[in-house]
Amino acid sequence: AASANDLMGINPMDQVSRKIVVRGVRKFIKPKNVDKMVSSWISGHEATIKVVKSKKPPKDNWIKLTLADESMVDKLIDLINKGGENGNPMKNDKGQPLFAKRADDMLRNDRAGGDDGDRKRKSNGDGGDTAKRSRHNPPPVRILSKDEVRDKITPLWRLSYKDQLDKKAREMVNKSAMKIVKEIKGKFRTIEKEARRDPNRSKIEVYDWVKAKRPVEMDAPTPSPRQFEYRNKCEFTCGFSLSRKNGSGVEKDDGKVAATGIEAKGELEDENANEEFVKTPACGFLAQGWSGGVYMPHILPNIPDWACGLSDILNDFLKSSPIPPYDSKVHRGLWRVFTLRCSIRTKEALVIVLHAPAKGGAGARDGGLDDYTGTFESEKKRLVEMLTKEAIPVPTRDLPESHVSEPRARDGTDIRVTSIFFQEFDGLSHPPVDHPVQHVVGKKTLDERLGKSLFQISPGAFFQTNTEGAEILYNIVVDRVREVTDNPKETMLVDVCCGTGTIGLTLLKEGVVGKLVGVDIAAPAIEDAKVNAAKNGFADESVTKFVASPAENVMPAILHEIPRSSPVVAVVDPAREGLHGIVIKTLRANERIERLVYVSCNPTGSLVKDASMLCGPPTKKYPGRPFRITRSQPVDMFPLTSHCEMIMTFDRMPMDEYLKYHESP
Asked: Which pLDDT score is estimated for 353?
């Protein structure tokens, strides 16, 4: 169960001394009213108290505030706890008292294994004692078997591929299509309630297509060309593997287990209490979260040979390195994550080494105990030599009997590491997409062939992790766009979250659109997109234009600049968080867009929210004729896992149908 600190996002290394937590606020407050509420608390004290950040979860009765300086913390706590009438606490808008305390007080309490005193724990149904466990007092280490590791990382590996697709088909209907319809109907109910309160507002009838027996028709999932070893990108976390030995010192054949960090410890469960751990630096996957450690990739059926071969090289390096792996609990050590990309088609591999500063991580101890500046450069050079010395070796795999090996390379040519980057990061979690990398050796990009096109991929750019599956995905997008482009040469494609330009340039290459403007927040991806346009014969700026910016900042201007004579079709391929509200507003308001093709990697989450806003009745915030869902096509890009990609097609509601429910716009 989550501790109080987990629930409130308190991190012991995250300037916690400048933070306070205020309890007693209303659970449901609109985001725009949060700042007003905080401003009312410090009214008249702005000269001595400055709040630089606030965090209010939507369904909790607390808010976390970060102040500009630690000296302001006690002042604000006193103001809230004693600044009301007659020296009493301030009150919320319902007259209930507020209570403020330092966030680091809660941290100390949590470390002691207790709660903050005024929060009630709920039983998780497994016997309430487990809910009291803190992340600082974890349960005994449990060693997972190979099958249990597969269950964690590739949970559908025990099913036949037909059963996997059937399971995903049911989930796409129940957790995506039905939830979208429910969300849309909820918007009509909200309008109906508002109409009851305000006589100037009128009720809107639910659209006929929403009331249909199956408002969202869901096609059967399109299978992946490869069921095994399909990934072209892997991220291996650094930590420690634990070999289990019996009394005679012979390793048992149930494989290696792992614990992350330079201080990795753990008790075995009672049945294993007499066994001995042998701790070895290694890299692999987190099968049990941060506290459970890393596991070798060799047993996983979705990981290709080249990744396991590189893992062997990296593990040999870590075993012999005098510099320890990074410990995410105490933020010490150096080697953090190895990111690997590979193109079987071009026989290229790219490696990114994420590491803490050589002088030590955020939790470095005094006296230079965690300073590795004297050995870092030599170790860096040694790692590069090990990675580039020869072709990636063929690893020894330990796969389930149901596994069918895929060809390691189509023409049998060995794969070599062609690009190496190092990336220093002193933060506590993961670096942002635009965090700089240092090019060390080889090419500065990786080339990949996709369909009729050749694409350049930079270290930080997004690219689909299943190359052959991406070809299937993009071909479906091509078909959806081709259906509505009567005049392809004059049709303008607006490609939102375009990445390296793969979808837009594929549509250009197939001749279904004649012009392209792409937008993405990642500047390296946009630079790749420009190069990719030139590589594929579309360097003319009158044909292709790519913009590095958050889509919500530039979408209104981009659509305004498109000539009125050009038909417009849009494709969006957002990250898991989905589309920004301003982007949705812009797409809805620009009624020249008759078709929108949405490629979603989160069809049971953000797609539900976005689809309901695209298809719901018009409001002040989201004006314009709504879209309606005309086709939904799941694509299995991730066999053996529960994830599935979705291509959802939205068509603008015809004007005559719109006028049945609304006045003329």
From this structure: 98
Token duo for residue 33: 């009213």
Q: CA nearest 652: which of 565, 608, 589, 606?
A: 589
Mean pLDDT on 582-609: 94
Report helix angle 502-509 to 467-482, nearest 10. 60
Residue of 288 and 573 predicted with greater confidence: 573
Question: Which sign does the torsion angle of CA 520, 525, 531, 534 carry?
Answer: negative
Is the C-alpha dihedral spanning 583, 586, 588, 594 positive or negative? Answer: negative
CA 478 to chain CA centroid, Å, is 26
Q: What is the pLDDT of residue 365?
A: 86
Comparing C-alpha atoms, which of 476, 475, 446, 448 is closest to residue 458?
446
Give residue 28's pLDDT band: very low, low, confident or very high (50, 70, 90).
Answer: confident
In whole angstroms, what is the distance from residue 225 CA to residue 409 CA?
Answer: 15
Give me the residues paired with residue 649 across strands: 597, 631
Cβ partners under 8 Å of residue 127, min gap 6: none
Using CA atoms, how far residue 285 sits from 92, 337, 488, 620, 640, in Å, is 46, 10, 46, 47, 16
Q: Which residue has the tokens 């081709």?
A: 482
The residues with which 634 forms a beta bridge, in sequence order, are: 646
DSSP letters along 489-546, please?
Answer: GGPEEEEET-TTSHHHHHHHHTTS-SEEEEEES-HHHHHHHHHHHHHTT---TTTEEE
Q: Rounded to the nearest 5 degrees, what angle is found at the Cα of 521, between the Cα atoms of 460 and 362?
A: 55
Q: Is the pLDDT of residue 111 over 50?
A: no
pLDDT higher than 90, residue 478: yes
Q: What is the mean pLDDT of residues 442-471?
A: 93
The two tokens of residue 514 are 């004649």
Secondary structure (3-state) at 245:
strand
Residue 163 dihedral angles phi and psi, to the nearest 5°: -70, -35
pLDDT averaged over the chain?
A: 85
